[in-house]
Design a protein that fits this description.
The chain is α/β, with parallel strands linked by helices. 46% of the residues lie in helices and 16% in strands. The relative contact order is 0.11.
Length: 339
């Protein structure tokens, strides 16, 4: 079958009666598209004798209004909701979102940025690799020098000067720790993020500052560095609870570590909320169904995505010359444990 190369993404969108962004999601296999629209778009491509792989390459490179969205993963509920916020706003502007997953691999991230630069995208939204070096900042600066604006989501870069949307990580953990203190806890432990993580460092600052303000001693053995995984949360909680002088409350710096803590406490027969209190990031949703009493820090994840797109869109249309970078710091909410 001979492939026709004259078809554009706009042609397919018009034939299908959908937005350009919807066609892009079908081609990229990312984002939600109703089964009806998906089948219709795929049928139009087939009827046009368009080879799928060639179609994807051609349609993407011919799209005039594209942005790149680069994130470590798509399974984590945090990134799923951020993605949803970005694509909602992009759909309103008929913008195609090209999603790329880095797996927190800085080398892979660099290849993706080169590819997006070659595709002449209008802008890039990115959550930089957790395991980044100065190379990440240099790559992003090179992208901006090429006239492609960049907006950071959730994580920053060492010494970088980019538009960004962050969570008030220090304030979030400060509030969580203070709530435990107000509930009468003085023996409070923390399962932290890796010490090289700038996000984790801010959260730890919030914990230590709150304990100091209230005149409480921080036992070094009660501050255990996690690895952003369920397994590390499980192991850290086990170590804490097996101590002779174990804590009465634990603050987990990530949702994965919170899940790990819950798994261990359940297996060990502890009554969460009675024998030991837990506080962690993000409402994981299923714990109340099992009668677990957890207080969580709620992050405005969809709002992060929406605001990041708006920052990028403004930069695309108004230009960035001689303008200072802008940083939006979003507050968090405390969701009390369900009684």
């Amino acid at each position: 079958m001979e492939c026709k190369m004259s078809l554009t993404i706009k042609d397919i969108a018009e034939k299908a009666g959908v937005s350009v962004a919807t066609v892009s999601r079908v081609i990229n296999g990312s984002g939600y598209v109703s089964e009806k629209n998906k089948k219709n778009i795929e049928e139009i491509i087939r009827e046009s004798n368009y080879c799928p792989n060639a179609a994807a390459r051609s349609l993407i490179t011919q799209a005039s209004d594209m942005i790149g969205l680069v994130m470590p993963e798509r399974v984590n509920p945090f990134f799923v909701k951020v993605y949803d916020g970005v694509t909602r706003k992009a759909d309103e502007e008929n913008i195609t979102v090209l999603f790329y997953k880095t797996d927190d691999d800085e080398k892979k991230q660099g290849e993706i940025l080169k590819q997006l630069k070659a595709q002449s995208v209008k802008g890039i939204l990115i959550t930089p690799s957790l395991y980044q070096t100065s190379a990440t900042r240099k790559m992003l600066e090179a992208v901006e020098r090429a006239g492609i604006p960049v907006v950071l989501i959730d994580r920053d870069t060492e010494g970088g000067d980019f538009d960004a949307v962050f969570i008030d990580n220090k304030g979030a953990i400060y509030k969580a720790t203070e709530q435990l203190i107000q509930a009468g806890h003085t023996q409070i432990a923390a399962v932290t993020s890796p010490d090289f993580s700038r996000v984790g460092a801010r959260r730890q600052d919030g914990f230590l500052e709150c304990m100091k303000k209230h005149g409480l001693e921080v036992c070094p053995d009660w501050v255990i560095e996690g690895e952003l995984s369920v397994e590390s949360g499980y192991d850290a909680c086990k170590r804490l609870m097996e101590m002779e002088n174990s804590p009465t409350a634990i603050v987990a710096f990530s949702s994965s570590e919170l899940i790990g803590c819950v798994k261990y406490l359940n297996e060990a027969g502890y009554r969460i909320g009675r024998d030991v209190c837990l506080f962690g990031f993000d409402d994981i949703g299923t714990f109340p169904d099992f009668g677990l009493q957890l207080s969580t820090i709620e992050r405005p994840m969809r709002e992060m995505g929406e605001l990041a797109f708006e920052l990028l869109w403004e930069r695309i249309h108004n230009g960035g010359k001689n303008k200072r970078s802008r940083e939006i710091l979003l507050p968090t909410n405390i969701k009390p444990a369900e009684k």
